[in-house]
Amino acid sequence: MSPVAVILDGYVDEPACLGVPPYVSPYIRTVAGVMISHGYTVQYLTIDQLRLDPLRTAELNRADLLVMIAGVTVPGKYLGGTPATLTEIQQIGLMVRGPKKLIGGPIGFGYAAGGGQKAIRQVISGYDALLNGEPAIALENYLGGNDPSGALDYTRTDPWSVAGSTIITQHPDYPYVMCELETARGCAHGATGGCSFCTEPFYGQPKYRSIAAVAAEVAALHAHGARHYRVGRQPDILAYGAGAGEYPAPRPDLLDKLFSSIRTAAPDLKTLHIDNTNPATLARHEDAGREALRAIIRHHTSGDVAAFGMETADPAVIAANNLKAQPDEVFRAIEIVNEVGGMRRDNVPELLPGLNFVCGLAGETGQTYDLNEQFLVRVRDAGLSVRRVNIRQVMPFEGTPVYTNNTLGKHEQRFKAFKEFVRNTIDLPMLQRVFPIGTVLRDVRVEVTGDLSFGRQLGSYPILVGLPLRLPRNTITDAVVVDWGMRSITALPVPVEINSLPASAIRWLPGVGKKKVAAVMAKRPFAGLEAYRKVAGNSAVDGLMKF
Ligand code: SF4
Tag placement on the chain: N or C end, fewer CB within 10 Å? Predict the structure, then answer.
């Protein structure tokens, strides 16, 4: 019988890598590949599965090898899972007795319980070794009797990513898994030290993965049933394959080839999205940037988001933290993405920008927040769309300048007021702009069930959809927008079953509300649209009703 190895996924979230469900990080797949190449039967378990059923610790005890992957360097709020805490990681290390126990991933950079707190490098007790550097390479070295460490080398990891692609079939969300695809590691801006808070420069200058290697991995994932992909494991998708320099010009030809190769390798894919996009690349290379965006849009799926790390609109903070883009550059980049990606397909914009703000950086003052607010109002009043505005407090990591020079704790009230301002003044009009009433979102997957169920499309920063109905988890439904929250929308399944929906759902229909819901319920069943309209009037949702 072959030896058994277990991968315990504690989830990762880094500036350029997401591995919180439904996302599966590349680390999981390459580590699985190493295990398979050493003859192990590989099992996959998530920290959430273990929390739900602690008796599964017995499975870990029976294994010959346990590798835990964990670490969050850019903390967020997650619907699909909760990353492993340091206490859990250590408890697992102490409780599991049978196998050799290794731990890897960004946890090696340090740990903090949340944003606004310093991430301290930890001695993680209970494990035989910390996989230093690239987990798959460190594991390979460990299994070969060498030091459990090693830097990323695509010539070594590419075959493992193909061999390990089978692991996705064990994911609890399978087949609704989003495969985070890696195309590059390291940041060109790191040449001048990088942004003060960012851990990506730890990986050095950019290394690009070959198109053939990405396509081979996608083909293997597709053969195992993967239908959702995000090209998200890189700091700037527009810089793929670009030349030297801190802000290299995009290569639209390479991007076209990369994305068309993914399409060819995964002919049945349903989602192909992107993530990080450096606004400075777009602002400094407008023509090449436009062509690069067009190349992506030719092959991706709509509803895509180019996430801009703006961080602040305060030039003094930009200077103090060596940030990459000035506010006017970010504004220009927002204009360009709106111009090239603002058209709709499958009811939603092809590609919109997202904006990330980081607070607590060196040099921040009360005025920083005024400037941030003014910038967002300028974007809103210019009629531009932004898919999301993400605001977080910095989590300083040892080895980054912000670790010793930051303003955490100095502007707490202003930080809270800024968040509140954005929720009320920016998020709502943006949602109304991007998802007007009557917009049908395709293939929303219910992730949380209840009287109010919550679901999302699979994608890069999908909007949270509240469905005022009890729907089983993993229900896939088209859903029509009927109202907006601050950071979510309310929607009803399509077709709208007007004669059978409960009153708690009917009241959300445009033109019905609390006032008319009793009248609508009393007149059911309706024979057709005319009869319904006599009670509730016309609305953008009428055409989607089933009688
Ligand atoms: S540009 Fe700045 S934030 Fe982006 S990856 Fe490089 S160092 Fe990190």
Answer: N
Ligand 1 mean position, distance from CA 118 (Å)? 19
544, amino acid identity: L
DSSP string covering 470-494? ---TT-EEEEEEEEE-SSEEEEEEE
Give the count of beta carbons closer than 10 Å to the beta carbon of residue 495.
14
Residue 146, classified by CB atoms within 10 Å of its CB into exposed (0-12), middle (13-18) or buried (19+), is exposed
Q: Is the CB of 200 under 6 A from ligand 1?
A: yes
Q: Is 194 in the pocket of ligand 1 (CB under 6 A)?
A: yes
- The CATH number given to whatever domain includes residue 92 is 3.40.50
Per-residue pLDDT tens over the stretch 244-291: 888 999 999 999 999 999 999 999 999 999 999 999 999 999 999 999
Q: Relative to the CA of 235, which ligand 1 atom is closest?
A: 5
Q: Identity (one letter) of the amino acid at 181?
A: L
Ligand 1 pocket check for 195: Cβ under 6 Å = yes
Q: End-to-end distance of the chain based on CA atoms, in angstroms? A: 59
Q: What pLDDT, on a 0 to 100 scale, did the predictor assign at position 483?
A: 96
Q: What's the CA gap between 355 and 278, in Å, rounded? A: 11
Residue 371 domain flag? no
* Last residue in a domain, options 151, 174, 197: 174
Number of domains in the chain: 2
As a whole number of angstroms, the distance between CA 306 and CA 461 comes to: 10
Which pLDDT band, with edges at 50, 70 and 90, does 123 fall under? confident
Distance 452 CA to ligand 1 centre (A): 38
Ligand 1 pocket check: which of 278, 317, 358 to mutate, most ligand atoms within 8 Å of Cβ?
Answer: 278
Question: Do residues 292 and 236 lie in contact, with contact meaning Cβ atoms separated by under 8 Å?
Answer: no
Answer yes or no: is 372 within a domain. Answer: no
Inform me whether the pLDDT recorded for 243 exceeds 90. no
- The whole domain housing 19 covers 1-174
Q: Is residue 276 part of a domain?
A: no
Q: Within a domain: residue 153?
A: yes
Predicted TM-score (pTM) of the model is: 0.96
Which residues 6+ apart lie within 8 Å of 532 measured at CB?
498, 520, 526, 542, 545, 547
201 lines ligand 1 (CB under 6 A): yes
Q: Whose CA is nearest to atom 2 of ligand 1?
A: 195
- The residue whose C-alpha atom lies closest to atom 4 belonging to ligand 1 is 235
Give yes or no for residue 527 having a pLDDT over 90: yes
Ramachandran category for residue 88: left, alpha or beta (phi over 0 → left; psi -120 to 50 → alpha): alpha
Look at residue 228 and tell me whether its pLDDT is greater than 90. yes
CB atoms within 10 A of CB 132: 17
Helix axes 154-163, 26-37, angle to 10 degrees: 80
Last residue of a domain, one of 174, 200, 231: 174
**Cα(279) to centroid of ligand 1, in Å?**
11
Q: Where are the alpha helices (DSSP H) in 179-278?
A: 211-223, 252-265
Q: Is the separation of the CB atoms in 354 and 388 below 8 Å?
A: yes
Residue 16 Cα: closest atom of ligand 1: 5
Structure tokens at 411: 């502007």
Pocket test for ligand 1, best of 199, 324, 326 (most atoms within 8 A of CB): 324
